[in-house]
Every structure is written in C-alpha cells, then in structure tokens.
Design goal:
With about 300 residues, this protein is of the alpha/beta class. It contains 13 helices and nine strands. It folds into two domains: about 45 residues, no CATH class; about 220 residues, P-loop containing nucleotide triphosphate hydrolases (Rossmann fold), CATH 3.40.50.300. Helix content is about 40%, strand content about 15%. Strands 5-6-4-7-3-8-9 form a seven-stranded mixed β-sheet, with helices on both faces. Strand 8, helix 13 and strand 9 form a beta-alpha-beta unit. It is globular. The N terminus is likely disordered.
C-alpha cells in the first residue's frame, strides 16, 4: 500500500467516510485520485480548517518576495492585463471569468487547465491573463505551469529566460519544486516553465512524481490557484492525460475558424465533468459608425 493510500485510509477512519474506488490517471481502478482529496488526506486534516488556514496563507502570500516587477508600460508591451489599465474592458472580462471560477469552486483553490480545440491555436495568452487576474487580489497567489512540452510559450510571453523547469524536476529527484518556481515580474504570480527535456511526454504526466508535485503545489497555500497551459486537445493524447490531474478545464475556441463538430469533438475529449466553459479568442471588434443628418 502506497503512502497516499495509507493517508486516505487514515482520513477515512477519522471521518467515517466511504472512499469509493474510481478510475485513476492510468485507467486502473483504485483509491480516489482527486488531487484535493489526496492533499487533504496527506495533511491528515480530513477537512479544511477554513478561516484560520486562509488567514495564515494570506499572511504568507503578503510576504512573497517580488523584487523585480514589470511596470504598466512593460505589461502593455507584453500584452498582459493589470489592475489599473486605462482601457479596462479586457481586464474586466478576465475578472468576470475569475468570479465565475470562484463561484463554481465555492471559493476553494483549484487547478484549471486551459486548452484549445485547434492545432496552431495557442491558449497561452488566455492562461497567462487569467492567472494575472487572480493575482490582482493581494490575498491570492497564482501559479502557471507550462505543460505544452513540445511547444512551450509562457516564458517567451513573459520575456523570461529560464533554464530549469517541469521536465527537469520529473526526471531528477534531486531537483526540488522550489528550484523550478520562477518569478514572472508580476506580483504574486509564479511560473513553472516546460523544462529542458521533452522526449517522453506521456510518461511525464502519468508519473507518480507528477501527481505528488501537483498535490504539493495545491496544498502549500489554501489561496493558491494553479493554471495549466496545455497543447490543443484534439491532437494531443498528453493533454487528455492532464485533464485527470485538474479540477476544471477551459476550452479556447478561435472565433469563426472552427466548425461546431470540431468544438464538440474537443468538448467530448475533455468530458462534461471537467469542462467548465468556453472562451472565444480573436473576436473581431464591432466597428463604430458616426452618423450625420443631412438637411
């Protein structure tokens, strides 16, 4: 019996719950694999301790060291939203999406994956700006994980030069989680880049080390929200594996460029229990006209 299963058994005994077997990441039948349940069991709490935990994590978040922070001009150049934008329509759109996610999760932290339904359509910009919207709140922290290992984008979007990341951690047990967490130039927002080696992607995401890393990350702060950027789901078996490690999935659809059948195919691959919504990208602006009356 693994340490995780032992922890779940103890949590079951302490709560008097019935922990039913469900399908795990590798398709086998076993103990419940939901990351939140595992995290709670490992911490031996069984239930969240609520307000006290949140106060504690908020204090730790406030002490997070963000020495080099982009100013508003630099963020604009990077096409990243910020709280006091002059034209705040885009920022407010992401704020609305943040509110919907928080309402759906009943205020608890979560892991959300952002993927797209079309090859060549990058979801990274949506992932980045959604995580930035969560970091507006001084009591919350966001974490980006670049899981599009064959075509990583997040470090480039943020203008960062990183030399160690996810695959390095998964391949080498001597690499710690803290060593792959990088500052982004945005307050309360951290990133785990894809890493240097990208040969056996599927094996990375089904590994026990990957699952344990996700448990550690979601457990460290009760107000940490994790955003996973992935490859387009129709062309990637790896993305389908990642779905199992996340609480929710957001599907990015390029406006006017895909058929309903293509969207349905992607939605079916995600599953109705995980798909929380669709974001339309590249929506054209409606032109404004000035009308003059002629006598």
């Amino acid at each position: 019996m693994s340490k995780i299963e032992e922890a779940l058994k103890k949590a079951k005994q302490s709560r008097g719950d019935n922990v039913s077997p469900i399908r795990t990441v590798d398709g086998s039948s076993g103990m419940k694999s939901n990351l939140r349940e595992l995290a709670l069991a490992i911490s031996n709490k069984g239930v969240r301790s609520g307000i006290e935990d949140r106060r504690s994590s908020a204090k730790e978040i406030a002490l997070m060291d963000d020495d080099l922070v982009y100013d508003s001009k630099e963020l604009s150049e990077l096409k990243v939203i910020y709280s006091d934008m002059a034209d705040n329509k885009v920022a407010n759109t992401y704020r609305d999406l943040r509110t919907k996610l928080l309402n759906h999760s009943q205020g608890r932290n979560f892991v959300v994956m952002v993927t797209s339904c079309m090859f060549g359509q990058v979801s990274s910009s949506v992932t980045l700006n959604l995580s930035a919207a969560f970091s507006f709140d001084q009591s919350k922290t966001s974490l980006l994980i670049d899981c599009d290992l064959n075509n990583p984008k997040l470090d480039k979007l943020l203008g960062l030069d990183t030399n160690i990341g996810l695959t390095d951690y998964l391949e080498n047990e001597e690499v710690s989680i803290d060593s792959i967490l990088h500052k982004t130039g945005i307050k309360r927002l951290r990133m785990i880049p894809a890493g240097s080696s990208r040969e056996t992607v599927a094996e990375y995401f089904t590994s026990q080390r990957m699952k344990e890393m996700m448990i550690d990350l979601i457990s460290r702060y009760s107000d940490r929200f994790i955003f996973v950027d992935s490859a387009p789901i129709p062309e990637s078996a790896d993305t389908r594996i990642l779905v199992e490690l996340c609480d929710f999935v957001i599907l990015v659809v390029p406006y006017g460029r895909v058929t309903k059948n293509k969207i349905k195919e992607a939605a079916d691959a995600i599953g109705s229990d995980k798909l929380i919504g669709v974001v339309f990208a590249d929506v054209p602006k409606v032109p404004k006209f000035n009308f003059s009356w002629f006598d």
